[in-house]
Design brief:
Butyryl-CoA Dehydrogenase, subunit A, domain 3, alpha+beta, four-stranded mixed sheet, Butyryl-Coa Dehydrogenase, subunit A, domain 1, four-stranded antiparallel sheet, Butyryl-CoA Dehydrogenase, subunit A, domain 2
Length: 373
């Protein structure tokens, strides 16, 4: 392994690599293909083990610092930043388990040594999960289709779940990892969407994939909130939303640069830019609160954190979307052309609202938990 870089080195390196990624962003967006070349570059520089503790072979960067690196990446290529955040949030959960429970060491060492890519199927793994599980000798046979699995095209291990009806007639949900090279695993090329087109958030199909008993990491009651979500949501949402803050910042940069040229003939530009900045400040400040809650992965699992994180996620998403919309209004009709970077930023930022939990689901979930307390 190469000599560990300092935090400052990674900040500077991310800007340098980002300039290269920006040159390819339009091509990946236009073709709707995964940002493969960007990922190869990130692997070369060991980005996939940024969060892994140094004693396990990683770089040991803080959760807050990795959030910031994702934000910087988004200035250059939103799809790269978002896909990368999906890997990092699984690593973050594993680091928390390693520090607080003495678990996940094997996985973290593997990430550091081999720069493997972890794939989340969390978009279909909320309280109910989906799919089916059959008991067999020594384990289970898992079938199902998981949508929105970012990086699926180049992933190594899927962290997933599926519902299981026990012999006692009780519905449980089993959580487990599955190698994407395992027999019975296939990737469906169905990611043809409006924005974030380079994330390869394709569907994964499991067809009677064998999962040994030893690989089942969690068994929980189906349709009930489990404390595991206090971990997953608290570490994941700040990393994921870092992408959208980066997109909003980039949109603001473009609008302000153009606004300087327009101001002489269009006095109203100053008002739009001022309003845009208010939206951006709202996004940034609440995003910073999100990652401060995690205290660099030194926090106790509580439902209060989960409620706050989900509420902040909705607020940040709304503020980022509004920031980009204000940038487009400032620039006017030219922002509607695909050759204008703002057009892609506008499409990409829309995805912010669809991460768990979507706004109305979040309102209902958090309201219910607050009333129950």
């Amino acid at each position: 392994m190469e000599t560990l870089r300092t935090i400052t080195d990674f900040t500077q390196l991310t800007h340098t690599l980002g300039q290269e990624f920006a040159e390819r962003a339009d091509k990946y967006d236009h073709e709707g293909k995964f940002v493969t070349q960007n990922y190869e570059v990130l692997k070369t520089h060991q980005y996939f083990s940024l969060l892994v503790p140094q004693e396990l072979g990683g770089h040991g960067l803080s959760h807050a610092k990795v959030c910031d690196i994702i934000r910087i990446l988004a200035h250059y290529c939103g799809s790269t930043a978002l896909a990368f955040s999906m890997h990092q949030h699984l690593v973050a959960a594993a680091v928390w388990k390693f520090r607080h429970m003495g678990k996940s060491e094997e996985l973290l060492r593997k990430v550091a040594a081999q720069q493997i890519v972890l794939v989340s199927t969390g978009a279909r793994d909320w309280l109910s999960s989906n799919g089916e599980v059959q008991k067999t000798d020594g384990g289970y046979l898992v079938s199902g289709k998981k949508h929105f699995a970012s990086q699926a095209a180049v992933g190594d291990i899927a962290i997933t779940s599926a519902p299981f009806l026990t012999s006692a007639g009780e519905w449980k949900v089993l959580h487990f990892p599955i190698s994407l090279n395992a027999e019975g695993v296939s990737i469906v090329d169905d990611w043809d969407v409006m924005g974030m087109r380079g994330t390869a958030s394709q569907s994964i199909v499991f067809d009677r994939v064998f999962v040994p008993d030893s690989k089942v990491a969690l068994v929980r009651n189906r349709d009930e909130f489990h404390p595991v979500w206090n971990l997953v949501l608290t570490v994941a949402m700040p990393l994921i939303m870092s992408t959208y803050v980066g997109l909003a910042e980039r949109a603001a940069e473009i609008a302000i640069a153009k606004g300087r040229k327009y101001l002489r003939n269009q006095a109203h530009i100053r008002y739009i830019i001022g309003k845009l900045h208010n939206c951006l400040i709202s996004a940034r400040s609440q995003w910073q609160v999100m990652y401060s809650i995690t205290n660099n992965l030194d926090f106790t699992l509580t439902q209060d954190f989960t409620v706050d994180i989900l509420s902040l996620k909705t607020n940040v998403a709304d503020a980022c979307i509004q920031t980009v919309a204000e940038a487009m209004e400032a620039i006017g009709g030219q922002s509607f052309y695909r050759k204008n970077e703002l057009e892609r930023l506008f499409r990409d930022v829309q995805a912010a609202q669809f991460h768990p939990l979507p706004k109305w689901d979040q309102y209902a979930f958090c309201g219910e938990k607050l009333i129950a307390n």
